Amino acid sequence: MTQSPSAPRSSLFAKYFIALFAAVVVPLLVAGGSEAWFGQRDQKARLNDLLEAEARSAAAKIQDFLDGIRDQLAWTVQLPWSDGADERRRLDAFRLLRQVPAVVSLTLVDATGRERLFVSRMGLNKIEGGADHSASPAFMSVRAGGAWYGPVSFHAGSEPFLTIAVAGTRTGVGVAVAEVNLKLIWDVISAIRVGRTGGAFVLDQPGRLVAHPDISLVLRADQISVRPLQALRARITAQSGQATAGRDIGGHMVLAAMAQIPGVDWSVVVKQPVAEAFEPIYAALWRTGALLIVGSGLAAALAYWLTQRMIEPIRILEDGVGRIGAGQFDHRIDIVTGDEFERLATRFNEMAGDLAVSQERSERIGRLKRFLAPQVAELVDRSGDDSVLDGRRIEVVVVFGDLRGFTAFSARTEPEIVMSFLGEYYDALDRVVIDHGATLTHFSGDGMMVLINAPVSRPDPAVCAVNMARDMQKTVQSLLRDRQMLDHRLGFGVGLAMGPATVGRIGSEGRLEYTAIGTVVNLASRLCASAGNAEVLVDLVAAEAVDGRAPLVELDARVLKGFDQPVRVFAADMRAAG
Description:
Blueprint: H1 12-34, H2 38-74, H3 87-99, E1 103-109, E2 115-120, E3 126-127, H4 137-141, E4 147-149, E5 153-155, E6 159-167, E7 175-181, H5 186-190, E8 199-203, E9 209-211, H6 215-220, H7 227-238, E10 244-247, E11 253-261, E12 266-273, H8 274-277, H9 279-325, H10 340-371, H11 374-383, E13 392-404, H12 406-411, H13 415-435, E14 439-444, E15 447-452, H14 461-482, E16 491-507, E17 512-517, H15 519-530, E18 535-539, H16 540-546, E19 552-554, E20 569-572
Parallel strand pairs: 16-18
Antiparallel strand pairs: 1-2, 1-7, 2-3, 4-6, 5-6, 6-7, 8-9, 8-12, 10-11, 11-12, 13-15, 13-16, 14-15, 16-17, 18-20, 19-20
Helix pairs in contact: 1-9, 9-10, 10-11, 13-14
């Protein structure tokens, strides 16, 4: 079985594409010089998309930071409070402080607003403190199953903090209130880089600086120094969120875009210096001139190289296909290009190999059928080994069939009619033999010889032989009824015998036959000669092997030529259902 060729290492389409692209890009580059001024507008649009994407990404990261804290708090308000101290909740609170470094303190309040647990990194922990939080904004504003974010506050006038409250989903669970140190948002902001020097910062709703790459600006909480940033945010808001030019704290012109964090109403602003942002435009103008010259030379060289590379494989393919078409199936097309040419050559080579195998098999079967029965020839071809035809001694069932009155019929009938009738007669019997898996060794005039259990072994060969003989009788009798106008005295008799015989091929080198030799062959032939029209005679050995599995009737013993003693004979009951 041939294997499919592997996929090409590169595509012929890609080679043509590169060549055509190079040929087209040269005039485009020439025209591109006159359109260079569009570059600034395109660059600004690209920067707008880039800055907006960075701003949305930073906002999403900060939102994830806050949502992560909210989700951790939600685990502490899952179960209703009991009357006494709840050790499990205290352990959960300590686990929360360990897993969420940003949480400075955690207060658990029951459904009435009474403080049940307070843990802190900086203060004393309290269990069942009992403080009333029912009037606090965190307790009053949060909804069941939801979260509430308080305003940003600066502890000691420097570090920014945020209060987050999360309510349980059921009445009686209460509220978890956490104080979160926002200095950790600096990790998110400091990781944002736009170009070489671009960055981001975060302002809350009143305009206070919550996060900045320079954390000292946040810790100073100096509202005067952050006014340029507030003004920049205002300019972006006025432009409906589009990237806008403005000045940062250092007084440098920057291009900035903004995204909102809805839960806390914060603004994330991403900026990049204008000079740096448009630097690629100026560099592109210099590169375009150089590429005009280099691209023209590359296009000519590449087109010439690809053309030459294509012509040679086509010539090899043309020569190879001609040789294969002329019958040289051993010829192989040798192309190593790593593309569709190589794959096509592989297909042609596979086709040549398949044609050679097919031709060899056809010639082999043809030679075998010239001196062997078709069934035997097919067997030898399927097995690939003609040793099955070697002589050997096995038990077989030999079946002979012969027309009655054929000699007289052929003497008084036109030859064309005789040959036409024999053709139908042979075809009908051949189909029956094939249906029963027997081996038709030869036709002889109006007679035939069939072997069962050689060269192909069969289970219950005697039963198979009797059933086949009955089908042969029925088929020929039906044929004779349709041909009564030819000669009503025509009949058909069958004889079969079972026993050991020597089977194998015999004959000369130019003419071989597969047959059987032995007493059983003579007995079957004599039984066939003794059988009357529509009769199937069976010897004792075959009848005993049938053992009642096919309808047989014992007849009087008969004296057969070549046998000293009368032979017990049985007849197949043709009236029984087949």
